[in-house]
Structure prediction request, 842 residues.
Amino acid sequence: MLIGNLGGAVGGNVSVASTGGSIDLNASEDGSAIQIGNIQNGVTANVSGNIQVSAQDNVTLDVTGANTDVQIGNGGAGTQGNDAGNVVITATTGNIVADLEGTGAFVQIGNGGNGSTGSATGDTSLTAGNGLQLTVGSAAADSGSYIQVGDGATFGATSGGGNIVVSSSAMSTTNSVDFVGNSLDIALTGANQSVGANNELWVVANNLAITTDNGSAFVYSPQGISLGVGEDGINLGTGELVLATAGPVTQTQSIDAAGLGVYTSSGAITLTNGQNAVSNLSLGTSGSDSATFYDVSALTITGAQVGGDLTVLTTGNLTFTGSATGGGAILAVAGWDGTTTSPSALTTGTAYGNNGGSIVIGGAGQNGNVDIGSATGSITLAADNVSLTATNGYAQVGYNGAGSGTIDVVASGNVTLTAGTQNDEFALIGNGGWNVSGNESGNITVDASGNVVLDGGSGQETFAQIGHGGTGTNSFSEGYSDTGLITVDGESVTLAAGSSQGSYAQIGSGGYQSGQDISGTATLGGDINVNAVSAVSLTGNGPDAYAQIGNGGDYVNTGAANGASGTISGDIVVSVTDASNHTSPDPVTVKAGSGADSYAQIGNGGNGENTPADGATVNFAISGNVTVSDLTLIGSDTGANGYAQVGNGDASKQGTGDISGDITIGPGIDVTIDNGTAPGTDSMIGNDTGFGTITGTITGYTASSGNPVTTPGGNGDVATTTQTQITPTDTDVNVVTVVPEDNGPNPPDNTPAPINQPPGPLDQLADIGGGNTEGTDTSDDLTTSLGRSLDPGSHNAPITVVKSIIPGVLTEVVMKDAHGPHGVPPADEDYSSWGNEALWQW
Prediction:
């Protein structure tokens, strides 16, 4: 049946109207055809004319017959020639319905026709007071039946032709339905009505605009597409747009939606309209294609996986609750000024951090692990505050694995790393992660105008770290390398270890038990510069919850196999710019924790580093110059091996390696030393080790008798020292050694005593040969009594402070207990007539 003109090069407008009812086109017979429009009559010719169908109620196209064709438009199935003209369908108060159940059938609203040849042009307009319903039954779809809105000859025809406008209260499409044209502009007025909710809408168009009343849109395009038609863009209110394409995605108008997900199998995503307002964003590209998004609201990245560069700029806050990874560079800016777009300028001046715009990685809405990383590209974050908060998984800025890109974090406020409460919820700025393998490298810069804070967590191995590596990285490796320059600047820099096993805080590469059971060559290296305006603080806490500025870590490379080797190196500078003006406390504080192995250290190495497997012979070296300004060192009173050290190696003397490097303590400062009372908890300035050699110089500090940095390590007789102390030339240096009160035996500790410990001073005094080789002698009791009277660690006298008066020559002991011996110097004499009474202790 045909309503229109037939034969040759025909033309003319066709209008069908029902002013009080409906219009139904019903093709129930197999092989039948129904058309409203102009059609060639078996000849090659051009046809044209506008087609208009209107009804007060419904306009229905009902197709149940097999191999049937129903069309409103010019052309027809199998016709030859060019077809042109606009097609307008209106159902004023009702629905526009196309229901196709017949196999091998075809329904089209537009010019062209199934299998036709020639061009098809003209606009298509569908207006329904109630709804637009386009349905292809499953069996029909499987047979190749389809519904097409717009111009063209086959399903998914090439975009072009005219523009399509849909205006309706609601819209539904099911199975093989496509929209083909130059542009598609959909406007739904019904509350919460969505586009493509049943099946994603198949759109073959160059431009797309969708407006809903808080409804969503789910769209697929087999080609590239631009968002925006005329003055219309994407406006979904509280709805979301999910768009998947096989080509690039761009925009000419803004996007306003609660959620946006854009994914391309080929082509870049470039959504750079400065008026985009999206709450939640997810992006994905393939190959080396990049993704760029600009926004003017508080934006949350729920996930992004980009083959090339990833750039996200927002004028508000930027939160990552899901991972965002790229094959190229990653650039994320919060508090964007709305105008600067050059990558090199976005981290300078007022381009970032405006209106308190901050970046959060993880946080309360975190959905599993969050990694902002690129395997080879650079990573740059700029905001007011930058926070890594591990809440429901880890939070990482850096590639989770073997990454080599540089990392730059710039903040006009604070940078905070907070580990979590559950096991392995770490916070890391660096490449690597928990128990990953591979070589990690790339320079790391954290530049904050406010404070930089690293907080270990309360869950097992919930560490906070700026550096490459992490707990258990490169375990059982045949060799690995973690290297890169690390620079941290802030008003203050705080490293606070957590309360649980392995919840350390570290600035440096390595980590707790990283490289364990290595059988090849390990390389940990890179200079470390920590620059603070007011203070630097390192505080250990729970068992193996250490705090360290340096490469290495607690039990790094432990269990090394026979023949294993490696280096841990890098110069370290820790400075406080106002150190010369401070009063108290000292600007640099290094304090061990209460748990076993909860040491605090500025230097390369770490407790038990490079410990070989049983019977193994290994070759490790630890080096690097260490420069520190004004400081306090406090050892642990309860945790074995909870030492406090400025220097390389391991002050608990549990580790293995040849230690070298010069140590410089800034002039015009105070140095406070407070040794711990638990085993292996000395506070020291200098290099140390258990097995190996010790070389280097110490400038700006001379140890008192309570801090013997020239004493070899105690784990066997292979530890030798050729460390030179250079007397400070600055007479303002004040060294105070605090000796802890000893009011009884140490609390129980299950840590084994160091092996092959050489005899102490009292043992040597009572038994020069060792092993009681001299036998029992009547003078032993007297010798022991005399030795104890001279040994500050062998009695319970509450002696608390030892002051170095003449370094290496004369030390004053200040006693708090009024019942101890008295030695008061005359007011007019400095030293000579004090007598020996002041030095006796019991």
User: Anything to note?
Assistant: Residues 705-842 have pLDDT under 50 and may be disordered. The CA atoms of residues 180 and 326 lie 33 Å apart. The two ends are 120 Å apart (CA to CA). Helices lie at 138-143, 761-766, 780-790.
